[in-house]
Design a protein that fits this description.
220 residues, four-stranded antiparallel sheet, single chain, 11 strands, alpha+beta, three-stranded antiparallel sheet
Length: 220
């Protein structure tokens, strides 16, 4: 998968290099907010017209249906989706493994999944809304501009629909291991960024991220 840290004005160039299909991420956001999937010029233009607080973004290959995923030097990655329903439809879904540090090590505390709003289609056009097909986060803005949660797309392990994910025990073990390794890596990096007196090592931080808007927030 191709991943690049680029400034805002470089985004159209990198999207073009990925064949016009890409994912743009605000690296300082979470819960699916600050993520834009791009599969046509209309979606790219909509992103570029947004007022953005930050200057640096992540641009990476888009993983969708095999017919329209990004191609890169690493090959093509694509979703196989959930187990087909009675209509033969499959959905993009993710799984979340939550863990907690304990005196006996990092232990799993919760597992759940989320699926996209619309099925994974073979064909797309200029009017296709890619986020409906690829976005799995449950947050959405209502008519009043308030954040709400679409719990209809939440997949819990104690419900029958969890089996539609097509996961086995090995998949859950792999998810746990990846979560633990990520947690340890983040913790180690955080320790390196904090000096002996408990202050942020600004020069070291700038070598990782030189986004002035973010640095200004940290210095407040």
């Amino acid at each position: 998968m191709t991943i690049r840290d680029v400034s805002r004005d470089q985004i159209p160039l990198w999207v073009a290099k990925l064949g016009g299909h890409a994912v743009i991420k605000n690296p300082y956001s979470n819960a699916g907010q600050g993520v834009w999937t791009i599969i046509n010029p209309k979606e790219l233009d909509a992103f570029m017209n947004l007022d953005q607080r930050y200057e640096r973004f992540i641009v990476q290959s888009l993983i969708g249906n095999y017919a329209w995923s990004s191609s890169s030097e690493g090959g093509k990655f694509y979703h196989v989706g959930t187990v087909p329903n009675e209509r033969g439809q499959t959905y993009v879904a993710d799984i979340r493994m939550m863990v907690s540090a304990t005196p006996k090590g990092i232990r799993p505390i919760s597992v759940y999944a989320r699926r996209a709003k619309s099925p994974l289609t073979d064909e797309i056009d200029e009017n296709t809304k890619s986020w409906d097909i690829l976005g799995t986060n449950l947050s959405y803005l209502d008519a009043d501009g308030l954040w709400q949660t679409d719990t209809n797309r939440l997949v819990l392990t104690d419900r029958r629909d969890f089996n539609r994910l097509g996961l086995g025990l090995d998949d859950l073990i792999e998810g746990y291991i990846q979560t633990v390794l990520s947690t340890i890596a983040i913790d180690k990096l955080a320790q390196k960024l904090i000096g002996p007196q408990g202050k942020l090592r600004s020069r070291l931080f700038r070598t990782l991220d030189d986004d002035e808007a973010l640095i200004s927030e940290i210095k407040r």
